[in-house]
Structure prediction request, 378 residues.
Amino acid sequence: MRILILSCNTGGGHNSAAAALKEYFDSREIFCEIQDALAFDSHLKSDIISKGDILLYKKAPKLFGFGYRFAEKHPSKPGYESFLYTIMKSGTEKLYEYLRENDFRTVLCTHVFAAMMMTEIRKRYSSDIRFYFVATDYASYPGIEEIHADAFFIAHKKLIPDYMDYGVPENISIPIGIPIKRAFYKSLSKERAKEVLDLPQDKRAILLMCGSIGCGPVYKLGTKILAKLPEDAVLVVICGSNQKLFKKFQKHISSEKLHVVGYTNKMNIYMDACDVVVTKPGGLSSTESATKLLPMVLMGEPVGCEVRNMEFFLKNGFAVTEDTLDGLADETVELLNNPEKANDMVELLKESFSVYSAGVIGDHVIAAADNEFDEDIF
Prediction:
């Protein structure tokens, strides 16, 4: 069996989910590779769309949000192709040739763009290749109504009606969660995690992080939290790939209560060491924090699918937020100092974030390829 995972570079979440799936297939000794779907048309197209998407998100979030909301409210009509679908299908021929030349008969798509390309292959070539859509947010997506996948692996059972509104049949919407790496399902004791990271053993810890592309009001919020931080607590800030933010913290703030980290591959250990997490409502970062059962404060002014992520987490009691930086800092310290409130949130998280999603998705597609899939097991 050979499996291809198609992702896109429009943010780290899609690639992180793809990596989590590959990790599982590798553990089963099943050949699997990840490719950038957009690059099958051209690397220039991939760069323009991916970098443009990230730039718009960071520099003009209101415009990005307006475009996303417009797309949500104006789905394509049956029998008509959206402008976006027309753009995406232009690399279909090269992708189909690659699938045939490399004998890929199972494809997982962690982005709508990739799933549009696979849908076009199905239309154009009547292909027998199975393909699946894997959601990386707590939402349905604009364009999902144009996708004809064998199954849709979605983030939560409460989202099934949203997918049905886009025309996705209930029987192929499988609410299994967002795939994250196996490391987030394992835990070190707080003492051991702090030892590994060289954090003080006698201090409680708040984790402030800003996603793979390092944006959001992290510096201003960090200073607010530091000003309100109890004497027996520290603030750990993960800057990701944002070197400018990392240097700004180092240059302007000198405090034993502050620990600043750039890019790290030890995020799971930092979560083990901390008591509360403050993060943007990205699909992957929220899932990782929730799986680690961390009381969560969601920050920033979300745009695009982050709006739906925040709505979902707040509605279900998985997180809290506030409209101002002072309010966010107060909520953060409140969660740190109020064990009853924090434990109530943890109990809710336990009910929804215990399944190793990458493994269940992997088992599903393996069984389907072997013609042994039994719907009752899901």
Summary: The first strand starts at residue 2 and ends at 7.
